[in-house]
Design goal:
The chain is mostly helical. It folds into two domains: 7-70, no CATH class; 96-194, no CATH class. The protein is 67% helix and 0% strand. The protein contains eight helices and no strands. It has helices at 7-18, 24-44, 50-57, 60-70, 96-111, 117-133, 140-163, 171-194. Helix 1 packs across helix 4. The longest helix has 24 residues, at 140-163. It is elongated, with a radius of gyration of 23 Å. The model is unreliable at 73-90 (pLDDT under 50).
């Protein structure tokens, strides 16, 4: 029997074969993600054997089962048990990145109030919210709650504070409002970290 000289191509072909029940565009996206992951891992660890990298990715049947489960397809791929649990697909951004961005965005406005810190903090908070919403590490409901608690509620509270004519003057009440927003976002970020998918 003739063996292939390209183990990566063989691996991707096996995934494609096992995931044949997926729609074509989703299957191609899965293969592109795997190829990119292999390429990045080879660049980061040039001394690692390709077999070791492929083994870390997992069995093609398991990857296909995971993709089918995510697509809502109940048909089990060839060779897997119906309803067998498959590991969740890893996101491209580590879950700590959006959590830290959302938790620490308030600090920029507090540390640099007159030097554009509020603008930078706002951009960091929005970027963190976008990364949270596009992550595979949380369910849709938890993403909505996380965005409301870390972006919506503190933003609305600070907007009302800044626009209110009855807001007390001086640095003390403004600092208290900023600290309250910081505590809220840090608490929400800690909750997001605790409820993330492994």
């Amino acid at each position: 029997m003739k063996t292939s000289q390209d183990p990566v191509r063989d691996y991707l072909s096996a995934v494609e074969r096992e995931a044949s029940a997926l729609p074509g565009d989703r299957r191609q996206e899965l293969l592109a993600d795997l190829a990119e992951h292999i390429e990045v891992t080879r660049a980061e660890r040039p001394d690692a054997a390709i077999g070791e990298i492929l083994a870390e990715l997992g069995d093609p049947r398991t990857i296909a089962a995971t993709a089918l489960a995510e697509a809502g397809n109940t048909a089990a791929p060839h060779g897997t048990r119906e309803g067998a649990a498959a590991p969740a697909r890893r996101g491209k951004v580590h879950p700590l990145v959006p959590v830290l961005m959302l938790a620490l965005a308030q600090v920029f406005g507090m540390v640099f109030p007159d030097d554009g810190g509020s603008l930078v903090g706002g951009l960091v908070r929005i970027t963190g919210a976008v990364l949270l919403c596009t992550s595979v590490h949380w369910t849709v409901g938890r993403k909505v709650i996380g965005v409301l608690l870390t972006l919506g509620l503190p933003g609305a509270a600070m907007g009302v504070w800044n626009l209110s004519d009855s807001a007390p003057g001086g640095a003390g009440p403004a600092l208290a409002a900023n600290l309250a927003a910081l505590v809220l976002t840090a608490g929400a970020a800690a909750w997001l970290w605790r409820v993330r998918r492994a």
